[in-house]
TrEMBL record:
Keyword Oxidoreductase: yes
SUPFAM superfamilies named in the record: NAD(P)-binding Rossmann-fold domains (SSF51735)
Alphabetical list of Pfam families matching this protein: Epimerase (PF01370)
Keywords linked to the UniProt accession: Oxidoreductase, Plasmid
Residue ranges constituting the NAD-dependent epimerase/dehydratase domain according to the UniProt record: 1-209
The name this protein goes by in its record: NAD-dependent epimerase/dehydratase family protein
Organism expressing this protein natively: Flammeovirga kamogawensis
Signal peptide: none
Amino acid sequence: MITGATGYVAGRIVEKLLMEGLTIHAPVRNPDNQEKLHYLNAIAEKSDGTIKYFKADLLTEGSYEEAMEGCELVFHTASPFVTNVKNAEKDLVAPALIGTKNVLNSVNKVESVKRVVLTSSCVAIIGDAKDLLPLPNQTADENVWNKTSSVKHQPYNYSKTVAELAAWELNKGQDRWDLVVINPSFVLGPGINPTSTSESFNIMKQIGDGTLKMGAPGLHIGIVDVRDLAIAHYNAGFTPEAEGRHIISNESLTLLEMVDLLRDKYGANYPFPKKELPKWLVWLIGPFQGIPRKMVSLNFGYKWLVDNTKSKEKLGMHYRDSKDTLNDFFGQLVEAGIFK
């Protein structure tokens, strides 16, 4: 069973599971909405696997039990990923935390489940890039926890942290099912739906539509290809000895370095930024663009570094070239007519 099946990350996981010939139970808000299920159904038709839909809601207790019956493996990917919200507690923290508790409380009731793979995030490890300064080599591994985010500061990061902590707490209270956690960095790459509404698509749109043509903010971030992330989830589900948390991240780049990987192929036709904006300017205008000044102060100009060794050694991860990730992703948006 997989929650959030119609989402950006989950879509590629479902694709991988279907191609492996598995039967997938997909709880969704409206199983009759064929338009929303179009991309998943198209993959299912070409695969040896089967997908079955069930009506469920993340915030309704017990609504996943029907979909979960008979499943040994549960992937929990559903969690809101938005950065600009009016009410962080209601729009981010509550859905992430209550949703995780609802799913895992159902796991406790459904005897067939043996393993849960939870999609957490690197933001449950690092709140702000400045938090890395006291760490060895200023690099985080799976032993580090985000202790600096809150509902008021980096609320998305906080939502992922409290949800993962709750999952580990629920896992400790029983001994039938084990928990394996995936902690991806910023996810990029082509999804199964070329017009998704995720933050990843928003960043790529801003790179190509001229929003950033005056300059790219000096933000350093870790990136991972959504197709590699799907493999990480699959391996976490089907590697018997897999345990604990796993940082899934290819490499860390600034926004300008990401754009530079697109220049050869697309630079002549799109208004890409050519320089980095100074931190003081981003600090000054950030609030008008939905970027809080505290976030600018604690992240811009600092390196964001994580150790992905465990993912390679325990989940057999081999990360594809970032240039391929970015060009495949940007190319998908070009083909979908996203840019004028």
